[in-house]
C-alpha cells in the first residue's frame, strides 16, 4: 500500500497560500495525506520565540519523516533549537527556510517523501 502523499502548494504570495485540495489559507500546516489552516492560537505561537514542539507533533503523528519550517517572508518567525532537537530526536529531517524557499523545497519532496510543513505567509 502506497503512503499518502502530501498536498502540493499551488501558489504562495503575501498573506495567501493556495494548497491542492485545501484551497486558500493564510498559514498552512501540511502533512502526508492532507493538512489544514495553521492556527497559531492553538498552541500560543508567536513570532518570538516561534514554532514550538507542540506545533510539529501533529506533522509527525501523520507520518512526516521530513519537516519544512518556514520563517516567514521576512524571516520574522523564530524556530527555537528545542523544536529542531525535538524533531531530530525522532529521526525527522528538518529544513528551516524563508517561506518561498520552504515552499520550493516542500513541493520538491511532496511527490516522493512523507513531508510535512508549517508555512507562514506573511512577515
TrEMBL record:
Chief site of localization: cytoplasm
Transmembrane feature ranges: none
Entry keyword Oxidoreductase: no
GO cellular component labels: cytoplasm
UniProt xrefs under Pfam families: DUF498 (PF04430)
Domain of life according to the entry: Bacteria
Subcellular localization: Cytoplasm
Keyword Protein biosynthesis: no
Database matches in Gene3D superfamilies: MTH938-like
Protein known as: Uncharacterized protein
Amino acid at each position: 500500500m502506497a503512503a499518502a502523499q502530501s498536498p502540493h502548494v499551488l501558489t504562495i504570495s503575501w498573506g495567501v497560500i493556495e494548497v491542492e485540495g485545501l484551497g486558500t489559507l493564510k498559514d498552512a500546516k501540511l502533512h502526508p495525506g492532507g493538512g489544514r489552516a495553521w492556527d497559531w492560537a492553538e498552541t500560543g505561537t508567536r513570532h518570538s520565540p516561534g514554532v514550538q514542539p507542540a506545533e510539529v507533533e501533529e506533522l509527525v503523528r501523520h507520518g512526516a519523516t521530513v519537516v519544512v519550517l518556514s520563517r516567514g517572508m521576512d524571516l520574522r518567525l523564530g524556530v527555537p533549537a528545542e523544536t529542531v532537537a525535538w524533531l531530530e530526536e525522532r529521526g525527522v529531517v528538518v529544513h528551516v527556510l524563508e517561506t518561498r524557499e520552504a515552499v520550493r523545497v516542500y513541493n520538491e519532496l511532496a511527490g516522493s517523501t512523507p513531508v510535512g510543513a508549517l508555512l507562514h505567509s506573511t512577515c
